[in-house]
Amino acid sequence: MSDSHWRPVDGAPDPFRVRWFESVDSTNRYLLDGARSGEPEGLVAVADVQTAGRGRLGRRWETDPGAALLASILLRPTSNLDPHLLTTTVALALRRAVERLTGTAPGLKWPNDLVVADRKLAGVLAEAIPTPQGTAIVVGAGTNVKAVPSEFRDRAIACDDLADGSVDRQQLLFAWLEELAARVRRPGEVIDEATVASATLGRDVRIEGHDGEAITGRAVGLTASGALVVEMEDGSRRAFTAGDVVHLRPA
Ligand code: BTN
């Protein structure tokens, strides 16, 4: 299905405009191309299914058709808000939207996954590019909505596993966008909220870097730009700006 096969979804909170695809290769890819051709901030792409969904660290992201909210948001930060903080802001907005619809607030696993009891509920992928209009950031999230099949239940969880009834993807999307609009108006609070929401702080963790390096220690804090501060056994501390975190012991 080509890029032109989407339907508009009316009623999204200001300033968002939603294009819903039955199928697209990747909602992130679609919005990055839109950003290059001058689309303004606030364009949102959603898909029932992606044929080449992108995950963090070059991985693929695959979900059954209709089982997840697969959505990306085009942002063009005008202030000097750090892109990492903006991505965390999007994740925190999604966390609160999930809480509004299911009654459970997931934890924020550093950097931006949403988890419940160490089972993954949502993953977030941010991609930034230069455009003639300035830096564009596309933040995409895949949120499990339909109950997770039994073979994945040890590591994944979905909104329907948390809620009494079934969660509607469009309602979840609109709640997410409302929460994001509110947070973008008060960017100074993101680290405090991320600290309260964190499922990683206070845990023993292994950080796996892109270069194969792995470091073990205790996650003790976030810096002002959202880097994860880890204290090693010898008492020294190191701040990580990227990498994959493994929580080593149950919370
Ligand atoms: C992760 O690896 O945890 C991040 C996964 C991000 C997946 C979402 S689904 C919507 C958007 N479009 C993509 O191609 N990827 C993101």
pLDDT average, as an integer?
Answer: 94
- What name does CATH use for the topology of the largest domain? BirA Bifunctional Protein, domain 2
Highest-level CATH class of the largest domain: Alpha Beta
Rg is: 18 Å
Q: What small ligands are held by the chains?
A: biotin
**Poorly predicted regions:** none
Give the neighbour order of strands across the main sheet.
1-2-3-4-8-7-6-5
Structural category: alpha+beta
Name the CATH superfamily classification of the largest domain. Answer: Bira Bifunctional Protein, Domain 2
**β-sheet strand percentage:** 25-35%
Number of helices: 5
Return the CATH architecture of the largest domain.
Answer: 2-Layer Sandwich
Total tally of structural domains: 2
Following the backbone from N to C, one meets helices and strands in this order, namely EEHEEHEEEEHHHEEEEE
Instruction: Give the termini separation.
Output: 44 Å
Any idea what the shape is? globular
Helix content: 10-25%
DSSP strand tally: 13
